[in-house]
Amino acid sequence: IGNSLYDEQGAKIVNDLLEKAKKNNVQIHLPVDFVTAEKFDEHAAVGAADIESGIPDGWMGLDVGPKSQALFAEPIKRAKIIVWNGPAGVFEFENFSKGTKSLMDNVVEATTRGATTIIGGGDTATCCAKWKTEDKVSHVSTGGGASLELLEGKVLPGVAALSPAP
């Protein structure tokens, strides 16, 4: 992964999650190519990498590549419910925004076909604002972690405080 930032603790559970998904016939769609940069900067030199080559030392993956964008479009087209949390790349930098923009375009298209689409999280909500798609998806939440906890069935403190006492 070169110099890409990643969640070290989260990386430790990836293989277990993939195995659990496989046992339960759940498809996981991961990127196969990447847009890379020599540094985390809007004007950094841009490169490309794929799974086979890997991201070279001294470079970082800042977006998904065009093959990944095409691969992600297929399951989005088939989906009836989409919950999206987190951009695919550094959408704030033009050179690294195409993967996230492609996902957004596909999610908007899925919404027009009748899919329920939920955008959860501050960064993903910011993507909606950037590309003016807030009214083109079913729901936009700025509460990323809270949105996920609600979907997990956890009691949210703010909701609990407003609920009548037992």
UniProtKB/TrEMBL annotation:
Pfam families: PGK
Enzyme Commission number(s) of this protein: 2.7.2.3
GO MF, one example: metal ion binding
Enzyme class of the recorded protein, top EC level: transferase
Keyword hit for Metal-binding: yes
UniProt keywords, alphabetically: ATP-binding, Glycolysis, Kinase, Magnesium, Metal-binding, Nucleotide-binding, Transferase
GO biological process, one term: gluconeogenesis
Cofactor(s) essential for the protein: Mg(2+)
UniProt keyword Zinc present: no
Pathway: Carbohydrate degradation; glycolysis; pyruvate from D-glyceraldehyde 3-phosphate: step 2/5
GO cellular component: cytosol
Family assignment from sequence similarity: Belongs to the phosphoglycerate kinase family.
Official protein name in the record: phosphoglycerate kinase
Organism: Bracon brevicornis
